[in-house]
Amino acid sequence: MITRRSLLAAAAAVPLGTGAPVRTARLTLPAPTGPHRIGAVTRQVAGHGRELTVSIWYPARDIRRHPVAPWLPAAPLRALLESVGLPVGVAAPLTAGHEGAPAAAGCLPAVVFSHGAGGHRSETTIVVQELASHGYVVVTVDHPFDSYGELPDGRLTVPDDDVSITPWDHAHDIRVVLDGLKHLAAGVGATIDPHRIGMFGWSKGATATALVMNTDRRVRAGLSFDGPMQSQPPVAAVDRPFMLMTAEFTEDTEDTEDTEDSGVAEFLALPHGWQLDVHVDGALHGSLCDQQWLIPQLPINADDLPGWLGTLAPAQAVRIQQAYPLAFFDQHLRGRRQRLLEGPSRAFPAVLFT
């Protein structure tokens, strides 16, 4: 099982160029494409002895006088950069979410997100704000001892390598969030439809998505971003819609001296409900989160970028991240047929249907 595949997990091995002083610069995120403005708030959720920090993203009816939320607060961003030996003179991007903005009316579908090992709840903000801009309530979760974050009192939280956090721990955290989902949404003035709840995750969080669907029928549709699909007890069959978007952890990845068995082949061999497996050609593990867009903005030698990004262009990665998750949840939570899920598209030549 992977242990640390967060936004900048491999950066310590990458040369930083000339060594010249780096001026503080603010990173950027691409804008979402949906018609709705976005609100965002951060809350604490307690359960099973673990204090969870969550963010709630939602369509907003008025964003005036509400400041935009940063991708990560300054302290955890600094800790993340320092932990991998990168200069700290970089400001987090500003998101499309406006802190505390009043929610739009309507009974809305909801999606929850689980991050990867040693990651954080903001690592797929491109996808999260895309869904919110199209009318979803999205709840993202920091998993204690496995994430970079900041508590309301200002205390910094970082991954603890001495604490074993498994995909099952992520799954248990998500079930706690599901228990309080109605209350969390109501706290920002939003109403969610309990019969239209989905989940997605990246890496370890993708494995947790399948585990939640194995144990909790409240989640009606699940999406995996390059999940290894391995855990103990193992992942079982999913009888509701489940989609895999793969990069490095594919059906063909086998356990060797240099790679881990993805577990994907065994998972796909199980009897499932509606299922789709697509491979993003040229992508690396981090290509299915914000890393693909943010890494080129960092002071890294251009010659080293292929080792970070593969051959998938960042702009194409963003379009894939915006289009396919939205199509999946629109089809299975809103009942809207999506031709994008029925076969290859000329607009997305890197997406291969397996």
From TrEMBL:
Pfam families noted in UniProt: PAF-AH_p_II
Keywords: Hydrolase, Lipid degradation, Lipid metabolism
Domain of life per record: Bacteria
Keyword Transport: no
BP GO terms, sorted: lipid catabolic process
Presence of keyword Transferase: no
Coiled coil: none
UniProt name for this protein: Lipase
Lineage: Bacteria, Bacillati, Actinomycetota, Actinomycetes, Micromonosporales
